[in-house]
Amino acid sequence: MRKFRISFRYQVPICMNWLYPQAPHPMTDAMINEKVLAWAVERAEIPLDVVARKVNVKPERIATWIEGEERPTFRQAQSLSSALHIPFGYLFLKEPPEEKLAIPDLRTVGGDPARKLDLNFRDLLSDVLFKRDWFRDFIQDHAGHELEFVGKYTVNDAVETVAADMRKSLYGEEGPPQSGNWEEHLRMLIDKAEAAGIWVMRNGIVGSNTHRPLSVSQFRGFAISDKVVPLIFINGKDAKAAQIFTFAHELAHIWLGESGVSNVELGDANYGAYQKVERKCNKIAAEFLIPAAGFPAQWRAADSLSDNADRLSRIYKVSRIVIVRRALDLGLIDQASYSRFYATEVARWSDTPASEGGSFHNNLPLRNGLRFTRAVVNQAVSGGLLLRHAASLLNAQPTAILSYHKNGRPAQ
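RE: above sequence
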């Protein structure tokens, strides 16, 4: 097996020995680049007074550093890098680094590109790619192979054909197994996807940092369409009722071989999507969850929307909002009726905010994906991976890795 390795996107100084032959005193002025500091503050989208509190200085002092009138001490510069979530060495670069998103940003607002993805998302994506590099090597070293369904279809193929193939790949010929309700159905879908070779992560924070929540207004999910380790990420901060559609949407991305960041808006007439691939994935997701064949016949026009939603959500094992959204798409109800229902559902979600809950041992594989978690833990306890490296891959403490192995789900 290949040895564990860490790669860096940018060549930055890891220490300051290249500037100072001897380790500088913590109170020595750090010759940082004020342009990089200004870039880092803007990038972090953190008010100056908040940055100042974290560095234990007044906001006016931060301003003098940005203007280049004064320099922080090395200790203050280290605090700055921590507060702004950048490597310490960045502050000494000649120019701010160019940050390019590793996957396409497919989000739109009113037909225009959505606002820039925030620092929490960017750090999340970097963390996911860091894990992906290790997992891809691991799978290839253990007789891994390319998955035939990744990129099997294009946006020009029939929605029904793609959705049927997705169901067959996950369920087999016998069809979906029985599940109690739509939440259990979502859990089953994730388990089936993992069994098929799709890596599924669901998290509402950056790594394990509860002080860095993910914003639903920024994104609801993303997909990385890799033939060896295709990946789906679901924003765990989103209402659980909406997560099942996000999952199906990102699953469609895998079948179309299209990576990207999505922000599906169930309340919008067009799902908030204007790009061709996003519109296609929404149609495939709806057909995957609720096939058009047979659904209109089960819709009772004489019943209320709420009654139809309750009854059909038990049949199709999806949330009420997905049922009523499908009725809109198939012309069974009008936009005004749907908008009123959607507003009521959103109010219900607000009363019961999404929460991961559960114990550490349950959340670890939920946040990182079950197969990935098992692979990392097994490698750590067998000596194939240093414990500290396993901890960095799972965003956990080394002792927690051993605790999970002992008390968590049995490793397979």
